[in-house]
Amino acid sequence: MRRFTEEEKAFIQEHMHDEPSQLMLQASRYPTLPILEMVQQIQARQKAAAKLPSWATNPDIVFPVMVSVEQSSSEATASYKASLFSGKLLVDLTGGFGVDSYFFSRSFDQVIHVEQNAALQEIAQYNFILLGASNIESINSTAETFLQSFAGKADLMFLDPARRGTSNEKLHLLEDCEPDILNLLPVLFSKSAAILLKASPMLDIDLAISQLGCVAKLWVVAVQNEVKEVVYLLQPEPVPATHIERTAINLQQNGQQLVCFTKAEEDTAIVSFSDPKIFLYEPNAAILKAGAYRVLAKQYSLHKLHPNSHLYTSDSLVPEFPGRKFRITGLSRYSKKEILKYLPAKKANITVRNFPETVADIRKKTGIKEGGEIYLFFTTDMHQKPLILICEKA
User: Fold this and answer.
1) Is 175 exposed, middle or buried (0-12, 13-18, 19+ CB in 10 A)?
2) Which residue of 30, 40, 98, 149 shows the fewest CB atoms closer than 10 Å?
3) Most distant CA pair in the chain: distance in Å?
4) Neighbouring C-alpha atoms within 13 Å toward the C-beta of 138
5) Which of 341, 322, 345 is nearest to 333 (CA)?
6) Residue spans of alpha helices (H) in 115-260
7) What is the pLDDT of residues 96-118, one digit of tens each?
8) Sheet holding 312-314: strands in order across?
């Protein structure tokens, strides 16, 4: 592992906001400095600035290659996961850069960080010491090899299987990821009371529940309305699929939006449908991924516009609704001339929900530019007719 001198650290901090490619072109100006290694650190810190601010702003932290930074959890999601559990021993079988291990070390007496890439494991171990996480033991091993020799019993084992193929393509099916959680389940349960699995946000939740067969709870975690993780708690005692608690959480700078429900509650929720009223609601991304469509209308006493549109309406504003809220200022048919009457600047923010055309198609046909204070929702109403709602933020 490359350990940087004080002079090299100072260079990295001084050029934190510079363009890396320009620094490489100027390498000859610094003949005594390892410019390539320092530029790689600068690139990683720039990438981590929003995702891992505590790491990015610490001049002593060493960063690995870019792909390891990209694949790591963010501080926000790692902190949230760690807040859900506590105990004596957690084993992170796919430790990587160590972000999850570090946050779990705050809620467990001991954490074992297992990473098969020797260089990455060394970097993580070095950073744990810098961060004062003295209760983390870091081991260079594959998950399978570690499990063969591990004689203890963990309170929780955490896995975030690698989701990159041999050609660096993104994978999301459980059987395609490494390690193969489906084959490891028997040995995992023999050495841990429970398993926490972080899976691809692209993986179908019902498929994952069916394949795993031992899901007790799950969390869909979004940050600033972008789904980042779907996390499954696995336990030996089976829970009926319809009774698994699903939590959709959207972590925001000013707090969090949270909805909990089961598939049974979703399937049996009685929902009313309506033409657009005064206010329009769009659920956050975590809710849409978790599948809380009908139960959301019930919990917040709202009407749906259509069974498949997942847009909601009411006469009175519901300020606590977990998503975006709008006041409807007009309704339009899908007619360029009619829509443009509402857009003097010929620009608007466009959202498509249960509509046969894409945003790109609509912009091409209408000439509407992006931006402004007006929001257009292209959807289908309860009468199966296309409808455009002209809105402003509530």
Assistant:
1) exposed
2) 149
3) 73
4) 25
5) 341
6) 118-130, 143-149, 181-191, 205-212
7) 999 999 999 999 999 999 999 99
8) 303-304, 312-314, 279-283, 323-332, 386-393, 375-380, 349-352
SS (H, E, C) 167-188: CCCECCCHHHCECCHHHHHHHH
**Is residue 199 within a helix (H) or strand (E), and if so which, with residue range?**
strand 195-199
For 286-329, the pLDDT digits (tens) are 999 999 999 999 999 999 999 999 999 999 999 999 999 999 99
Q: Which residue has the tokens 């929702």?
A: 377
Specify the pairing of strand 312-314 against strand 303-304: antiparallel
Contact 234, 216 (CB under 8 A): yes
Cα first-last separation, the chain = 52
Record the tokens describing residue 32, joined without a space.
């005594």
Q: Which two tokens stand for residue 77?
A: 């999601």
Distance CA 375, CA 373 (A): 7
- Assigned token pair, 273: 């449908």
301 φ/ψ sector (left φ>0, alpha ψ -120 to 50, else beta): left
State pTM to two decimals.
0.92
What are the CB-based long-range contacts (under 8 Å, 24+) for 341-350? Answer: 342/374, 342/390, 343/368, 343/372, 343/374, 345/372, 347/371, 347/372, 347/374, 348/372, 348/374, 348/375, 348/376, 349/374, 349/375, 349/376, 350/375, 350/376, 350/378
Give pLDDT tens digits for 51-83: 999 999 999 999 999 889 998 999 999 999 999
